[in-house]
Design goal:
The protein is α/β, with parallel strands linked by helices. It has 10 helices and 8 strands. It has 2 domains: 110 residues, Phosphohistidine domain (Glucose Oxidase, domain 1), CATH 3.50.30.10; 110 residues, Orthogonal Bundle (Enzyme I, Chain A, domain 2). The longest helix is centred in the first third of the chain and has 29 residues.
């Protein structure tokens, strides 16, 4: 982190002070290889899709229950938007059609449809749709990771040796509600505002957080010794912090 970057400013979305080293979490769509399935395997891929949707639905219901226990009934309703996405006939029907018509794998079809919808919502310029982008991405990551048998980002903090500040490009409510306060003491996200679902949960759970800190992942190397002020939306680093190369 350069001297000019020793004090960074974003949007304070959850008050409080947090101190510790930073750890970078890349909560993003995994890379999905393009692979065409034989015609005889198409319906098997559709069944894989449906099985994954069922499992992710169960995961989200568990997260909803955890959110209700940790943050309250109103905050738990945040997960209803993600659950509805898994039931959306147009979206899921579009994914199944991509499998049947283009012989995509289930994960490739889900990725393709997600990117298509994300581009439409972004182009619309509607603030409400923009807020839902994190929900869309969160659902897609869970479904695709499940289909590809990949580990989730939540595994990262389970191996942390000391309380740390999590830095990400974007945080979903599902990731936020899974946080263990013994491992994660603060949050920094490049995207999001005070009304983002992840920000609302961070505030309810009581984790100091800064959102809307542009370029945070590139500007804050992993292991940076930092002090996060979630009230003022400021992040400062100590002289012992590593520098960017």
């Amino acid at each position: 982190m350069s001297p000019a970057d020793r004090l960074l400013k974003g949007i304070g979305v959850s008050p409080g002070i947090a101190m510790g080293p930073t750890v970078t979490v890349r909560w993003a769509l995994p890379e999905v290889p393009h692979r065409v399935v034989p015609r005889t395997q198409v319906e098997k891929e559709v069944r894989r899709l449906r099985a994954a949707l069922k499992d992710v639905r169960e995961q989200l219901n568990e997260l909803r229950a955890r959110a209700e226990a940790r943050a309250g009934v109103d905050e738990a309703r945040i997960f209803d938007a993600q659950l509805l996405m898994l039931e959306d006939k147009d979206f899921i029907g579009g994914v199944a059609e991509l499998i049947r018509e283009n012989h995509f794998t289930a994960e490739k079809a889900f990725e393709f449809k997600t990117l298509e919808v994300r581009d439409l919502w972004t182009a619309a310029g509607n603030p409400l749709l923009k807020e839902r982008l994190a929900d869309l991405t969160g659902v897609a990551i869970r479904v695709i990771q499940h289909l590809m048998h990949k580990r989730g980002a939540s595994d990262v903090w389970e191996s942390l040796s000391e309380p740390s500040i999590l830095v990400a490009r974007e945080l979903s409510p599902g990731l936020t509600v899974q946080l263990d306060r013994a491992h994660v003491v603060g949050l920094i996200s490049e995207e999001g505002t005070r009304t983002s679902h992840a920000a609302i949960l961070a505030h309810s759970i009581g984790i100091p957080a800064i959102f809307g800190l542009r370029g945070a992942v590139a500007r804050i190397p992993a292991g940076t010794k930092a002090i996060l002020d979630g009230t003022q939306g400021c992040l400062s680093s100590g002289p012992g912090s590593p520098r960017e190369t």
